[in-house]
Amino acid sequence: xxxxxxxxxxxxxxxxxxxxxxFVEYTLEETPGMTLYIALTxxxxxxxxxxxxxxxxxxxxxxxxGMLVNGKPQLACRTLTSDFEGGKIELLPLPTFKLIKDLxxxxxxxxxxxxxxxxxxxxxxxxxxxxxxxxRVEPAVADEVFELDRCIECGICVASCSTAIxxxxxxxxxxLNRVARFSIDPHDTRTDEDFYxxxxxxxxxxxxxxxxxxxxxxxxxxxxxxxxxxxxxKLVMS
Amino acid sequence: xxxxxxxxxxxxxxxxxxxxxxATGAKGLDTIVLxxxxxxxxxxxxxxxxxxxxxxxxxxxxxxxxxxxFSDTVKGSDWGCDQEVARMFVTTAPKAIRELAAxxxxxxxxxxxxxxxxxxxxxxxxxxxxxAHGLINARDFGGTKKWRTCYTADATGHTMLYAVAxxxxxxxxxxxxxxxxxxxIMQEDQCVGAIVRDLKDGTLCxxxxxxxxxxxxxxxxxxxxxxNATICKGTGHAIAIEAGAYMGNMEAVQFHPTPIVPxxxxxxxGCRGDGGVLRDKDxxxxxxxxxxxxxxxxxxxxxxxxxxxxxxxxKGVPSPYGDHLWLDISILGREHVxxxxxxxxxxxxxxxxxxxxxxxxxGWMPVLPMQHYSMGGIxxxxxxxxxxxxxxxxxxxxxxxxxxxxxxxxxxxxxxxVVSGMIIGNYFADYCNTTEITISTAAVHxxxxxxQRYLESLLELEGEENIYNIKDEMRRIMQEKVGIFRNGKDxxxxxxxxxxxxxxxxxxxxxxxxxxxxxxxxxxxKVPMMLKVALxxxxxxxxxxxxxxxxxxxxxxxRDDANWLNRTLSYWAAADDLEPxxxxxxxxxxxxxxxxxxxxxxKKGNTIENPLSQVRQEEVDSxxxxxxxxxxxxxxxxxPFKLQPEYKRQNERIGEDNNG
Lengths: 238, 660
Ligand SMILES: Cc1cc2nc3c(=O)[nH]c(=O)nc-3n(C[C@H](O)[C@H](O)[C@H](O)COP(=O)(O)OP(=O)(O)OC[C@H]3O[C@@H](n4cnc5c(N)ncnc54)[C@H](O)[C@@H]3O)c2cc1C
Ligand code: SF4
Ligand code: FES
Description:
heterodimer; A: alpha+beta; Ubiquitin-like (UB roll); Fumarate Reductase Iron-sulfur Protein, Chain B, domain 2; two-stranded antiparallel sheet; 7 strands; 34% helix; B: alpha/beta; seven-stranded mixed beta sheet; five-stranded mixed beta sheet; 19 helices; 36% helix; globular; binds flavin-adenine dinucleotide; binds iron/sulfur cluster; binds FE2/S2 (inorganic) cluster
C-alpha cells in the first residue's frame, strides 16, 4: 500500500455562467513512480470525469502541461508526487494565459502571436538546391543553435514573468530566446538592424526587468538571462 | 452551424501534415491544417534518435547511397513494403534533410579529425575526413548497414517539427488547433471535406475542400503500454474507416525494445546506436548469443522478441511491474551521455532517479518492449491517394503508403513524414488544383445535423457502463492478446471480446451533460472509433497465419512467401457491422528489384519459399551481369519508378564522382 495523497485543484469553467472558481480536493493512493500525469489521469477516470487538463507526450517533451504546483510553475508530467513530503499538492492553471477550463490554458494562441511578432523562422535570400551538398556549418555553431532551439514553448517563463503580466504584448523570455536563436543561425541572413526592428522596444528587449524568474523555472534549463542580456547588448550597439 | 471552404484540407499538424501544407501552400492553394493540439506539440516532437538519409558524410557512412538505404528498408520490412515506394523514398530523403537544414534544423555536423566512439562496446577512434567537415553527421541505428541516421542530439523530432512549423507559418498557412475531425463528408464515393468539432466550445463546423488529407499519425494508444503520446488514438483512421476507406496491414504493429519501466517513456534507439547494450539480471550482455552479427542492433522486431525470449528463460530482473531487462549506456562515458544523450539522461533521472552516466549497475536503466509504431494505416497509392476513395489522401504514420511493410527501421519514420509530405503533398496539390467540386449546402448541413444528433444521443444514454472502463478493457485485450507474441486462440478471443466492447459503448452513461469542454463526452465518441481500429488490427492478425516482421505467430513461426506475400485490406462493409471485412492485395515478386530472401538477422531457414523468388532472382542476376553503365541506369532496368522530376535528380555526395 502506498501512502494517501491529496490533490487540490482550482476548477473553473469560464464559458459556463453558473461556474465559479472553486477548489476541489481529491484523495488517492500513491503508486511507485507516480507523476502528476498519472495521478490526474487516475482522478479523471475514477473520481471526477469532468476534470480538465492538457497532457500530450507525458514525457516532458511537448510543453503542453505547465501548471502551478504548490505555487511554482512547472511541467506536471515531470513532477513526481513523491517529491511532496506531506503528500499535499495544490494545482492552479498557469497565469497570464487565457484560461480554457480548470488546468487547461491556451498557450497555443499566445505562442502563435509571439512567433508572428518575432518572425520565428529562417529568413534567407539564397535559394537552396536540394540535390547539391548542404551548406557547411561549424559543428560548434550547430551545437550552439541547437542549444537555443531546445525551447518547447511551454510558457513557464511567461507565467513566471512580471513584465508579461503587465504588458500583454511582451514577447517574453521565450520570444527573446527565439530571436537569439535565429540571430546566430548561419542560414538566417537577417542583420542586427532587422532584429532591432522586430524587438527593439518595451514589448521586446527593453521590457525585461532582469528578475530571473524565467530562467529559474525553465524546464529546459535554458540560460535565458544571459541570452536576453546578450541580445540587448548586441542590438543596442548596432 | 457553420461551413468553411478551402482548396486543401489537411487533418493533422505533425511533420507529415505540415510538410504537405507547405507543398499545397507553395502551389497557391488555400490550405487549412487542423490539429488536436498546438501543432508544435504534435507527437512528432517526441522523436528522439534521428532521421535516415544516405548522405554518406561521416566516415562510417562512406559508400552509403540510395541503393544501400533501399536494401536496408526492404529487408527491414521483411519484404512486405512496396519497393517502388521505397525507391521514391530513398531518392528523396537526402533532399528532404537538406531542405530541413536550410529551414534551420541544427543538424549535428561532422568535425574533421579523430573522434572517440563506442563500437560493439569497445572505445574506438575514427577519423573524419577534412572534406566532410561541417556537413551533416550521422549515427548508427538498428537494421542499417551504414551510419545513416542524422540527428540533433536526442531531440531530433522536436527540432524538425519546429523548423517545419516555422516555415509553414512564414508561408502563411492557416493552422487551427484544438480542432478535431470527427467524420468525413462524402458525396457518393468522393470525399469533399470533414465535419470538425471545436474542442474549446464544442461547436461543429463543416470544412468543405476539393481534397482532404489525413496525416493524423499512429494508433498506439489502443494498447495499454505504448510509447505514443496520449493523443495517438487513431481517430483519423476511424473517420476514414467510417467513410468506407480500405486500411492496409493494420496488424503490422511495432514494439520498441527500450521504453523505460514503468512509465513507458521511450529511450531512443540512439542509446544502442551509440554503443549502449542490453543486459540481463546477471549483468550479462545476451544479445550477441542470439544475434551474432547485428547483436543489440538487429531490427526492432527481432530485438524485442529476443528480449522476451530471454526473460522467459528466467533471466529477467524481477520488479513490482513484472520482469524487465537493463539498458546500459554508462559504458559510453559521462561526457558522451551528457552531451549526445542528454534527454535520455534527463528522462531516467526525472522518472526513475537513475543517472545513466553513473558507472556500471548504478547507471543501468530498466527497460521492456512496448507498442511503438503503427506500420498499418490508410491504404494509399504511391501518389498518396486512397485506393478506393476519391479526394482522400494520406501520408505520414497514418498512411500505409507502404514504405515499412511489416517492420519499419528506426529513423525511417520521421524521414517518411517529410519525404511523403514533399512527394504526396505535391501530388495532393496537383489533385486539388485540377478538381472542381459542387456540393449543395443542404447536403453539407445534412452531414452536420447527423453528427450533431449523434453527439446529443451520446449525452442522452442512460446505461450502466463507464466509458473509461471500456477503454481500459480494450487496451488490456490488445496488450495481452494482440501483442508481441500472438496465437490463434488469443486472437480469436480478442476479436470477440472487442466486438462485445463495441456493443457496450452504446450502454454507457456520461456524468455531465454539457456538449463542450467535456472530456468524458470526447471519450464517448473516441472509444468506439478506437475499437474499430483495434478490430482491424486483431482480425488482420488472427487471419494472417504466418510470421512476418513485427507480426509474430507462435503457431505459425515461418514467413510464408508462398501464401502470404500480400497486404491485408480491412474495411467496414456496412456501417453497423461489428467487425471489419478483410481482403488481400498480392505483391508481385516478378516486379521486385529485390526478390524475397533472408534478412541477415533473425532465425535462418525460417521461410516458406515462393518459387517465383528464385525465378526473379535469376532474372535480376542476369540483368546485373549484362549491364553496362552506372547504377542509376541499372536500377531503371530492374524496377522503373515514377517520381516528380525535381525529386528524382541525383543526390550529390562527397567522394562520389559523377554519382556512379
Ligand atoms: C517516443 C517516440 C520516439 C520516436 N523516435 C523516432 C526517431 O528517432 N526516428 C524516427 O524516424 N521516428 C521516430 N518515431 C516515430 C515518429 O516520431 C512518428 O512516426 C512521426 O513523427 C509521425 O508523424 P506524423 O506527422 O505522421 O504524425 P504526428 O506527429 O503524430 O501528428 C499527428 C497530428 O494529427 C493531429 N490529429 C490527430 N487526430 C486528429 C483528428 N481527429 N483531427 C484533427 N487532428 C488530428 C494531431 O494533433 C497531430 O497534429 C518515434 C515515435 C515515438 C513514439
Ligand atoms: S524558454 Fe524555457 S520556460 Fe520558456 S517556453 Fe521555452 S522551454 Fe518553456
Ligand atoms: S505532457 Fe508533454 S511536457 Fe508534459
